[in-house]
């Protein structure tokens, strides 16, 4: 029983530190909330749902692995593969968002060329028919593509440290222990994400881009693309 209590403390600690040390867990929400002018409640809600998907996918994978008797090494290799997918998804999403910001910048400056327009995704090209204000963009969008892209990326995002922690209570035939570890780790991860995003959101409010607001989208895309390359090549 003492081992389980120690495992619970470890789960909470790892949930906190693996989130804190992984900027991909919170930076996209902070930069996109600034670029898209999201409200605080919308920013935190998107963070919460994405974090829930992030943790739940690894929990489900762990439960399936335990039920089928899959070895820890195989589960960890699956998580590593999912990490590569997330890196590429973040890179692609950031690159697309960068071109979206560049497109808006050129259109506002009166340098909208057909050749550049051809390089953009169809959905971004349709933005030409919308107003330049972010509020009008949000009102005319039928679906929140930014939210769904973030959610999809975080669902693929692995929680490598969670899988080994689920194995010990499973080996002790403690279903309560397995569930408790998953819940504690998940709560620690999501609460940490919400806390850091909230602080980042509040801090970003002090940054005044009144004259340079059109560059915020470009910068957000570059930051997200950099996070993707960092995961792929630096092992973040």
From TrEMBL:
InterPro entries: UreH-like_TM_dom (IPR039447)
Record key words, sorted: Membrane, Transmembrane, Transmembrane helix
UniProt feature coiled coil, ranges: none
Signal peptide: none
Transmembrane regions: 6-32, 44-73, 85-103, 147-170, 176-201, 213-234
Pfam families registered for this protein in UniProt: DsbD_2 (PF13386)
Domain Urease accessory protein UreH-like transmembrane: 41-226
Name of the protein in its database record: Urease accessory protein UreH-like transmembrane domain-containing protein
Originating organism: Maribellus comscasis
């Amino acid at each position: 029983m003492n081992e389980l209590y120690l495992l619970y403390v470890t789960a909470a600690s790892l949930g906190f530190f693996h989130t804190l040390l992984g900027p991909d867990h919170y930076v996209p929400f902070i930069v996109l909330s600034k670029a898209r002018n999201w409200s605080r409640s919308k920013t935190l809600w998107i963070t919460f749902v994405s974090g829930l998907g992030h943790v739940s996918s690894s929990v489900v994978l762990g439960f399936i692995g335990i039920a089928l008797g899959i070895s820890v090494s195989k589960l960890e290799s699956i998580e590593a593969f999912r990490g590569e997918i997330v890196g590429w998804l973040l890179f692609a999403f950031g690159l697309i968002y960068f071109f979206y910001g560049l497109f808006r910048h050129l259109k506002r400056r009166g340098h909208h060329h057909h050749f550049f327009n051809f390089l953009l995704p169809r959905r971004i090209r349709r933005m030409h028919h919308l107003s330049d204000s972010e509020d009008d963009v949000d009102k005319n969008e039928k679906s929140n593509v930014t939210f769904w892209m973030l959610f999809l990326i975080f669902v693929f995002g692995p929680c490598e440290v969670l899988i080994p922690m689920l194995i010990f209570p499973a080996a002790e035939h403690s279903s309560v222990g397995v569930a408790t570890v998953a819940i504690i780790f998940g709560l620690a991860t999501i609460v940490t994400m919400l806390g850091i995003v909230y602080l980042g959101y509040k801090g970003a409010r002090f940054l005044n881009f009144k004259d340079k607001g059109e560059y915020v989208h470009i910068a957000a895309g570059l930051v997200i693309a950099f996070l993707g390359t960092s995961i792929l090549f630096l092992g973040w």
